[in-house]
Design brief:
- The protein is of the alpha/beta class.
- The chain has helices at about 10, 45-60, 65-75, 145-150, 165-170, 255-260, and strands at about 20-30, 35, 60-65, 90, 110-115, 130, 155-160, 180-185, 190-195, 210-215, 220-230, 235-240.
- It has a single domain, classed as Dihydrofolate Reductase, subunit A.
- Residues about 240-268 have low confidence and may be disordered.
- Strands 6-5-4-3-7-1-8-11-10-12 form a 10-stranded mixed beta sheet, with helices on both faces. A two-stranded antiparallel ribbon has the order 2-9.
- The longest helix is centred in the first third of the chain and has 13 residues, at about 45-60.
């Protein structure tokens, strides 16, 4: 999509120029699973949802994941399905579990950063930057400390892709401005959950963010949530395409992407 920038509306209302802008992304089944019990996750989401994920990556300064995601999936974390630049790739690795041969550490011109506790050593591939982040009493890096470290590196627009623990910690800490949840029409019945948040006793305590819903031609549904705003009278729903298999336009977009040009986090 031309000029697609999901961070734009977040930036417009930022309280100060040096704050982080954070969007989380989650692709899940109808029953809230991101992988089977064996760990298989490629691919729950369809092609349109994957295109959307790659547009999010292209608009971010950095894509952030926990080391568990690298161990489980060995993702590239780059931009391939749409035009755009590769973001910096940031791995949260407090205790030094990261395999130096992980694909996301491959040199392609993008920055590669590994966040470690001060006491963790070990060689990294050439060009990969080790960034020290202090841990809390449980040995974990807090979202606030992570974002502060990334701002010091000049990285302000952050896409949090996973996994469950990382997304949940950012959401629980109130460190996420937007959340793009992509739901695929498949039921796994068991497997890894996408979120594990602190329990609530009453529905009135549930998060109910303002949301825009986009229905993709293959049946996947995008919930683009603005976590800073409460829901007001439901959500806006848009059917974004016909699924007729027509190729992208010259600018790399498809008809459903042009139709979605005024979604909640677009440039308008």
């Amino acid at each position: 999509m031309q000029n697609y920038d999901p961070f734009l509306s977040l930036s417009a209302s930022a309280q100060c120029a040096d704050r982080s802008l954070v969007i989380g992304q989650l692709g899940q089944s109808l029953d809230g699973r991101i992988a089977t019990v064996s760990g298989e996750s490629k691919y729950i989401s369809g092609g349109y949802a994957l295109d959307h994920l790659h547009r999010l990556r292209a608009s971010a300064d950095a894509v952030l994941v926990g080391v568990g995601t690298i161990v489980a999936d060995d993702p590239l974390l780059n931009v391939r399905r749409v035009p755009g630049k590769n973001p910096a790739r940031v791995i949260i690795d407090p205790s030094g579990r990261l395999d130096p041969a992980a694909r996301c550490l491959g040199a392609d011109g993008a920055r590669r950063l590994v966040l470690r506790r001060p006491d963790v050593m070990g060689a990294l591939p050439p060009g990969v930057e080790a960034v020290t982040v202090a841990a809390d009493g449980a040995g974990r890096m807090t979202p606030q400390a992570i974002l502060e470290a990334l701002r010091a590196q000049g990285l302000f627009r952050i896409l949090v892709e996973g996994g469950t623990r990382t997304l949940s910690s950012f959401l629980d800490a109130g460190c996420m401005d937007g959340f793009h949840v992509l739901v695929s029409p498949v039921i796994l019945g068991s497997g890894r959950a996408g979120l594990e948040l602190a329990p609530i006793a009453a529905l009135k305590d549930a998060l109910r963010p303002a949301s825009r819903v986009e229905v993709f031609p293959d049946g996947d549904v995008l919930f683009a949530c603005d976590l800073r705003l409460p829901a007001a009278g439901g959500v806006h729903v848009s059917d974004t395409g016909t699924g007729d298999g027509r190729p992208p336009h010259e600018d790399g977009t498809r008809d459903h992407e042009r139709a979605a040009g005024h979604s909640l986090f677009s440039a308008g």
